[in-house]
Amino acid sequence: MFKALFISVVSLAALESQAHAHGVATIDVAFDGKNGKIQFHAPASSIYGFEYEAKSAKDKANKEAGLKKFNDKVNDLFQFAADNKCEVKMDYNEVVQKEKHADVNATYNVSCEVAPAGTAVTLGVQDVFKRVKAVKVNVISGDTQKSQEVKKSGEKVEL
């Protein structure tokens, strides 16, 4: 059931945002009770400053530093209510290179002691990735199905 829910939210989001928009990230959040998935998607330029294949030592270092933030800054990216006692762990991240464009995808597993439905997650994406100006968030959790645009870090998205 949970996989079907997550696939539904990801498929819906993909239909809504097929355009590659610099400065815009998309986050899909799906929860089934206490367990959830978060999928993060953004143009590589928003994560590490460019989209071409990294060849120089400087470009490789910038790319590595940008991708490292997905794991190192996970608690800055997603902050769940303390009472839910949620743990967010990165499953993987990847760069998808297509000719002159590259996108970065990251997937997280979330496990909570108390189901977060009816609470909120605070996003810190723009603090971690300074080139991201807007985040389109799609949520399926409990009875909630919604989309919201977040313009600055610290904004909450209800689950």
Tell me what you see in this structure.
By secondary structure, this protein is of the alpha+beta class. The protein has five helices and nine strands, in the order H-E-E-H-H-H-E-E-E-E-H-E-E-E. Strands 4-5-2-1-7-8 form a six-stranded mixed beta sheet, sandwiched between helices. Strands 3-6-9 form a three-stranded antiparallel beta sheet. A hairpin with a 2-residue loop joins strand 4 and strand 5. Residues 4-18 have low confidence and may be disordered.
Instruction: Identify the overall geometry.
Output: elongated
Q: Main beta sheet: strand number and arrangement?
A: 6 strands, mixed
Return residue spans where pLDDT drops below 50 for at least 5 consecutive residues.
4-18
Please trace the helix and strand order, writing H or E for each element.
HEEHHHEEEEHEEE
Q: Structural class per helix/strand content? A: alpha+beta
Number of helices: 5
The percent range for helix content is: 25-40%
Query: How much of the residues is beta strand, in percent?
Result: 35-45%
- The oligomeric state of the chains shown is single chain
- N/C terminus separation: 18 Å
CA-based gyration radius = 15 Å
* Counted beta strands: 9
